[in-house]
Write a structure and sequence with these properties.
This protein has 9 helices and 17 strands. By secondary structure, the chain is an alpha/beta fold.
Length: 312
């Protein structure tokens, strides 16, 4: 009898230890760094975000940024739409991303071949957008992209679904530049800041609080972004290097992933600027402009306007 009780007690302790181990493993899984989870191929439910990619993202080797987009869109349950209309060769670029997202395990991948402004009303646009958990805008010409879809029921519905945390939107190069209400549509680089250095237009208004410049350090565009921010001091400048993404999440934080850096240009404490009265080609003077350089793992709080260093 005593031996049977001892055996039952031993079995009970063993079961308790296994349950504890399972709880610990589950906790560790929940606390896994997201990049590690992506590398391990874990499927997750849709994680609403806007992914602003600086262009030149890796499409051949580990494809970390594109993989993160698919995983955030639902992993093996992801339903992805590709919008290649910024490109002069939408068929080719659409096919490239279609093959990549299919290889990365998305369940549905479609190319939306938009050659003229859509005339759908809101119910039709909503029905189209709601077929997808993630939408990807390719590179090309941001003026062409916005000329085709800005202020249409299609684009307005995408913005609404993002606000409702129901989808992931990613844009690379031109698709990144178009994210703000104010958009850099062209300009020069490698010069001192002055008004004629940058051309501005109206973007898609997905992230109205920012102005984006892409291929940032790769094309020496710091002065260009500073010039844009001097003209719009109520915005935050976001300069994104190639193969790098700024991920804007619903908790008002921006997270950096990729090979390069994200530069934040914050005019919130500027004490002086001659932008209003200086002539077009004369150099700008800007005092107390704050600049942060963020590499992979760093975050930035958009409301508090403070960088958050990665834990050591």
């Amino acid at each position: 009898m005593a031996s049977q009780q001892a055996q039952k007690l031993s079995q009970g302790i063993s079961l308790i230890n296994r349950l504890k181990k399972f709880v610990d493993q589950s906790a560790n899984m929940l606390n896994l760094d997201e990049d590690v989870a992506i590398d391990r191929g874990m499927t997750q439910i849709i994680k609403s975000a806007v992914m602003v990619i600086g262009g030149g993202e890796d499409k051949v080797q580990d494809r970390k940024i594109l993989k993160a987009f698919v995983e955030s869109s639902g992993g093996s349950q992801a339903r992805i739409a590709i919008i290649p209309c910024a490109s002069r060769e939408p068929d080719i670029i659409g096919r490239i991303y279609h093959d990549i997202f299919t290889e990365l395990g998305a369940s549905v991948v479609e190319v939306l071949d938009i050659r003229e402004r859509p005339h759908d009303d809101y119910p039709e646009a909503e029905a189209l957008v709601d077929r997808f958990t993630g939408i990807f805008m390719t590179g090309g010409d941001q003026l062409r992209l916005c000329g085709l879809i800005a202020d249409t029921p299609f684009a307005i519905t995408i913005a609404k679904r993002i606000d409702q945390h129901r989808m992931v939107l990613a844009g690379t190069s031109a698709g990144a530049a178009a994210m703000g209400y104010h958009m850099i549509s062209g300009g020069s680089s490698g010069e001192s800041p002055h008004k004629e250095l940058v051309n501005m237009s109206t973007g898609l208004n997905i992230l109205p609080e920012i102005i984006v410049d892409q291929h940032f350090h790769n094309r020496n565009r710091m002065a260009r972004l500073m010039t844009a921010i001097a003209a719009h001091p109520d915005k935050i400048g976001i300069g994104i290097d190639e193969d790098t993404v700024a991920i804007f999440e619903p908790n008002n934080t921006m997270r950096v992933l990729g090979r390069g850096t994200v530069t934040v240009v914050d005019p919130g404490e500027v004490s002086y600027s001659n932008q209003l009265w200086v002539s077009g080609a004369a150099p700008l003077t800007i005092h107390n402009l704050r600049v942060h350089i963020l590499a992979a793992g760093c975050k930035y709080h958009m409301l508090k306007r403070i960088p958050i260093s990665p834990s050591v």
